[in-house]
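Morning. Coffee machine broken again, so started the prediction first thing and wrote up yesterday's gels while waiting. Chain of 186 residues, entered below exactly as on the submission form.
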Amino acid sequence: MILYVLPPNGSFSLLSVSGDTPGEAGNALGNEALHVSQVLLNHCSDTIAKGLVYGTNPAVGSKVTAQSTVKLILSSGGCPTTVPRVINRLVGTAQTLLKNAGFVVAETPAPASMCTSSKLNAVVSQSVGPGLSAPYGQTIFVQYCTSVGSTGASGVTGVTGATGSTTTTTTTTTLAGTTGVTGATG
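Came back before lunch.
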C-alpha cells in the first residue's frame, strides 16, 4: 500500500473506476476521501457492459482535492449501430457483414415455402430491417434457404426419353434431396 500525505487542499489525480460496478467505484473513490454523487448519468458503450461505470465527472486524471464530489457515468450498453441489408446475400456473406457491424448473428433455416432454387444458401429474412438502428452487440436473426419449396425443384423426379435411341443414360443430381433421371427408350 502506498500512502500519500497531501498538504491541506492539496490536489491529486482522479483514478479510473471504468468497468467497476457502482458499489466498487464508490468504495474505491471513498478510499481516496472523495464523495460519490447520487446523480448517475448514462452513456452508451460498445466495450463496457450495461450498468457498469463508463467514466466519471470530473474525468479520470483530473486534479481533485479530498472531499470533492465525483459523479459516476454508467454504461447504458451498446451504442446504436445501423443494421446492413443482408437479404438475398449468401449466408456466409451475411454473417460477415453483420459481425463486422458489431452484431451477433443467429441463423435458422427458412421454411421451404420461402425458397426457390436461385435462393439456396441465401438469406430471405432478417429480424431487424436494413437501415434501422440496433444496439452494438445485439443478436440479429436471419433465415436462409436450405431447401426449395413446391414452386422450386424439391420433390420433382423427371423422366425424359428420346425415341429411336438404343442408349440409356442415367444422371443423378442432388439438390436438396432431389433425384432426376433421364433416359432413352429404344
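Residues 22-31 form the longest helix (10 residues). Going to sketch it on the whiteboard this afternoon.
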